[in-house]
Amino acid sequence: MPTFRYAAMDVAGARQSGTLVVEDERAVVRQLKSQGLYATDVRQEGTGLSIDRRQQGEVPIGVFRRVRQTDLVMFSRQLSDLVRAGLPLLRSLHALSEHTDNPVFVEVLKKVATDVAGGRSLADALEAHPRVFARVYISMVRAGEASGQLPEILERLAHLQETERARRGQIVSALTYPAMLVCVGTLAVSLLVTFLIPRFRRIFEDLGKTLPWPTQRLIGLSDFIGKWWWAVILGLAALVFAYRVWSGTPGGRLIVDRFKLRNRLFGKLIQKLVIARFARTFGTLLHGGVDVLHAFAVVRDVVGNEVIGKALDACRERVREGDTIHAPLRDTGHFPSVVVHMVALGEETGNMEGVLSSVADSYDREVENAVRTLMSLLEPLIILMLGAAVFFIVSAMLLPIFQLNVGVGG
């Protein structure tokens, strides 16, 4: 078996080195771990191959291998409690990795603990997993480490994540019933077109009379779907795929986000969502000790709208040149005057975080009311549209029968 030379560190931070004769690098790590040591470098003798544990790639994350937001909330709050209680950071990370149910998150935390044992800061260790820890999370942790307020920062991060999750939950709950209406209605109409109309067609052919125009169009649609249903499905899938690819490009995303803001039906709702997210995240970053310029750069990726993001880029450049915060926000035209005045008040009083928190709470309530109002309008509209489609189908099928009765009566 090959010989491996290793460098490792124990829980207290003391470094050790030596050699082991085992089958592979994983066996080195397992054996060191059983001794309470954490490998920072493993090198196979005679080959020149070196495996730096601190430089290993990110844990693969996918559709079926992901870290939920609830896992991050629990991790943030529990790590805050452990560090505040005086437990060393490395021991806290190992304790949390042992008590985490999500196996993917366990892998992530073990790699984070290995990096921290190797001398990296917690923020640098988290930064190696960008698909798990967002940029705002890493920036807050980095500021917390620099200021010595890591427990407080982690607590605020947990609160920020819980607020965001609650807002998303409200929107998803509000959209569930309309989505069910659309799905059930679409299924009902599809069944009518594909199964009911062909049976009526045979009856109409036996009558030997010219069919009304609506009936002809409906039978033509039924024949087309019955023959080319696979092409319809492939075409819709291709359209969805093309849209996702196009909207993922910088130009496409900008056009889509501009349409969202200008849409009369839900544009105001999107704007309120963006402002609430901006205010809460920006205020949390400033409270955590992140400088204004870096806070602008981080929140630009959080707002979720490219139009607002570019406006924040312009604000950041003006602040870099010595301008205030509220003036460039006002000049973007995307922030209501009340928000601009509140930001100006925060700058004057030095309580920017408190003012932005109030703005976020206010807009969260407005978002909740706007969603409720939108759903109260959307649900009847969906019912009317589905009812109109069913009425057209039934009417088109009954028209020939009515004409036949009229002809017989005449």
Would you kindly provide a written description of the structure presented here, covering whatever features stand out?
With 410 residues, the chain is α+β, with helices and mostly antiparallel strands. The chain folds into 3 domains: 3-55; 69-133, Type II secretion system (T2SS), domain F (Receptor-associated Protein, Up-down Bundle), CATH 1.20.81.30; 160-410, Receptor-associated Protein, CATH 1.20.81. Helices cover 73% and strands 6% of the residues. The chain is built from 15 helices and 4 strands. Strands 2-1-3-4 form a 4-stranded antiparallel β-sheet. Helix 10 runs antiparallel to helix 15. The longest helix is centred in the middle third of the chain and has 58 residues, at 150-207.
CATH topology of the largest domain: Receptor-associated Protein
Shape: extended
The helix tally amounts to: 15
Main pleated sheet: 4 strands, antiparallel
Query: What is the name of the CATH architecture of the largest domain?
Result: Up-down Bundle
The overall strand count is: 4
Low-pLDDT residue intervals, each spanning 5 or more residues = 47-56
How many discrete structural domains? Answer: 3
Considering DSSP H and I runs of 4 or more, what fraction of the residues is helical? over 70%
